[in-house]
Amino acid sequence: MKVSVVIPVFNGEATIAETLESVFAQRFNGGFEVIVVNDGSTDGTRAVLEKYGDRIRVIEQENRGISAARNAGLKVSAGEYIALLDADDTWTEDKLEKTVPVLQENLECVAVFSDATVVKGPGRVLFENYIDACYAHSPTLDEMLKVAWPILPSTIVVRRETLLEIGGFPEEFGKEYGCEDTFAFLLLRERGEMHFVADKLLRYRIFSEVKDYFAKRIPADGDEPADLERSYAGNLVFARLIRDRFGARGRHHVRSAIAGVGRGLVSLGLMAIHEGDRALAIRYYRASLRYRPIDPKTYVRMAWAALPAEITGKFTGILTPRLRRSLSGPPTNLHDRPQRI
């Protein structure tokens, strides 16, 4: 078995079949197995997976987060190489054909990744390229420590032995996303080269609606500020891991991750005020100031949220659309080109 395809899935009923079909459509003669880790899905994911019978190996576990799911697949894998794929992304037919030989022909290379097309759904392309020209090359470790290199997990194929050597993906992140992949890729780069393939070998699906994304992070009534910040706890885990591993060399990532908590909380505040909950918006803004205390825009937004709706309504009509959105939400459209810390 040359390649083990590891697919973690949580409530992926709507997309997992399309993802799997893209794997089985591969023009690759090296042999591969497909391991799907069902991370405690509560929708119809299991029923979809059962239709594939022995074409896939399914690992069932309670919901523990994407790092634990990927590690569970890694643990039972038999391939020389691990190809990661998220349950809402799809590969082009030549994905394995154009990446696996790079590892076979370059012994110093521990992983290979490619460019991707950003899509909103089948046939709806938002960006032809995920990777900008300035990042379209094989990075050095110093480059990866200066910026979160745009490596999508679904584009990467890695030597199984090397992934095991670094301990897989850090499970300290728990169920929250927080650059767990970025940290693992830095550890991989310490072990050897990571080669870049310019072809767009992945269709990377982003969230369909801004509201749906932020709604998952809005807490229940009565939650305290600490609970509000839990949605971005992964950023703080990332900052700690980077500081412990790389010290001063990782200072950019540390600063950016902490600032990212503040930015995220502001975005949740904008979503809250857009939904009419001005009190919750103020709580988010206040919480964000613990991470970005010198941010005049946040103070302005907090003052705007504190005003009665009938007063702000009188001014809304004379504000520019950009300023109106900056004060009353919703957050910046997630369909804008993905941002990197």
| Element-level helix/strand string | EHEHEHEEHEEHEHHEHHHHHHHH
Mean pLDDT: 90
* Category from helices, strands and their pairing: alpha/beta
| Strand segment count | 9
Q: Could you name the CATH topology of the largest domain?
A: Spore Coat Polysaccharide Biosynthesis Protein SpsA, Chain A
Beta-strand residue percentage: 15-25%
Q: How large, in whole angstroms, is the Cα Rg?
A: 21 Å
Residues in helices, as a percent range: 40-55%
CATH class of the largest domain: Alpha Beta
Q: Number of domains in the coordinates?
A: 2
Number of distinct helices: 15
> How would you sum up the global shape?
globular
CATH homology superfamily name of the largest domain = Spore Coat Polysaccharide Biosynthesis Protein SpsA, Chain A
Largest sheet: 9 strands, mixed
**End-to-end Cα distance:** 37 Å
In the CATH hierarchy, the architecture of the largest domain is: Alpha-Beta Complex
Poorly predicted runs are 334-341
What features would you highlight for this structure?
2 domains, alpha/beta, 341 residues, single chain, disordered C terminus, nine-stranded mixed β-sheet, Spore Coat Polysaccharide Biosynthesis Protein SpsA, Chain A
Describe the 3D structure.
This protein is of the alpha/beta class and 341 residues long. It has 2 domains: 3-205, Spore Coat Polysaccharide Biosynthesis Protein SpsA, Chain A; 210-328, no CATH class. Helix content is 43%, strand content 17%. The chain is built from 15 helices and 9 strands. It has helices at 16-24, 45-50, 66-76, 95-105, 141-146, 160-165, 180-191, 210-215, 225-229, 233-246, 251-274, 278-288, 296-306, 309-316, 321-328; strands spanning 3-9, 32-39, 57-61, 81-84, 90-91, 109-121, 124-127, 157-159, 193-205. Strands 1, 2, 3, 4, 5, 6, 7, 8 and 9 form a 9-stranded mixed sheet that branches. A hairpin with a 2-residue loop joins β6 and β7. α10 packs antiparallel against α11, α11 (251-274) crosses α15 and α12 packs antiparallel against α13. The chain is globular, with a radius of gyration of 21 Å. The model is unreliable at 334-341 (pLDDT under 50).
